[in-house]
Automatic annotation (TrEMBL):
It holds the Pfam family AIRC. NCBIfam families: LarB. PANTHER family: PHOSPHORIBOSYLAMINOIMIDAZOLE CARBOXYLASE-RELATED (PTHR43064), SLL1489 PROTEIN (PTHR43064:SF1). This is Nickel pincer cofactor biosynthesis protein LarB. Residues 123-253 form the PurE domain. Gene3D superfamilies: 3.40.50.1970.
Length: 253
């Protein structure tokens, strides 16, 4: 039984307190046991049940063999799986066994998306990008949100250096339920968008910029110091984190 059923049975009186406690304890043990020990990694096989989406594999720093082994295990179990910061070699190794696997060069994501159901069809996530150079991080965010079942609207290259470009799309941005803003350099776009919309804004600083940008630190600090209310900030270049947070928010009314 799932947790809701256990609690309902206890509430109705058809399950004693001791039996309910035992059932909950057994459920906890079964979830704890739902890991796969690969020697070099312990894979969480119950994350979808707990959090709504399976474990996502961060491939950077792993060998191709390690990434392929982990992704193979997950792709056999789940319809939709994501590997971020993956090389094309990982994709090529997976393709013979998983014909549905795809690779996006810009986002550097390898993914399997068998289930294309849009679970939030009446609610859109807007991904707004300051410059063309920010698109790789934006695509990581957009693809993440799409694979998790969201409708995504991309609005690219509307940075504050030519603010008329942004203002011409303001009505489109306001139609979204959640807005992701991706910007490098001085990171000003997040504050401007935050002052134009009533929806939650997720700011993503990128490492795009000249020397004083400090590989994205200046954009990060600018976004953290935003004077616009309702702006949250993820880490530098963390498109995946923004896409996942937007997915969670978009499932809420």
């Amino acid at each position: 039984m799932d947790i809701t059923s256990i609690l309902e049975e206890y509430k109705k009186g058809t399950l004693s307190l001791e039996a309910a406690q035992a059932a909950l304890a057994e459920r906890g043990r079964s979830h704890t046991a739902q890991t796969a020990d690969l020697g070099f990694a312990h894979i969480d096989l119950a994350r979808q049940e707990r959090c709504g989406f399976p474990e996502v594999v961060y491939c950077a720093g792993k060998t191709v063999e390690q990434s392929v082994t982990i992704l193979t295990l997950l792709m056999k179990k789940y319809d939709n799986i994501i590997g971020t910061r993956a090389s094309k070699e990982v994709y090529e190794r997976l393709l013979p066994d998983f014909p549905d696997v795809q690779y996006d060069d810009l986002a550097r994501m390898v993914y399997q998306r068998k289930d294309t159901t849009i679970v939030n069809g009446d609610r859109t996530i807007a991904v707004v990008t300051a410059g063309t150079s920010d698109i790789p991080v934006s695509e990581e965010a957009a693809l993440t949100a799409e694979i998790m079942g969201n409708k995504v609207m991309r609005i690219y290259d509307v940075g504050v250096a030519g603010i008329h470009r942004l203002l011409s799309r303001a009505d489109d941005i306001r139609k979204a339920n959640v807005v992701i803003v991706v910007a490098g350099m001085e990171g000003a776009l997040a504050s401007v968008v935050g002052g134009l919309v009533s929806q939650p804004v997720i700011a993503v600083p990128t490492s795009i910029g000249y020397g004083a940008n400090f590989h994205g630190l200046s954009a990060l600090l600018a976004m953290l110091n935003s004077c616009a209310a309702g702006v949250s900030v993820v880490n530098i270049d963390n498109g995946f984190g923004a896409g996942r947070l937007a997915d969670i928010l978009n499932r809420m009314r």
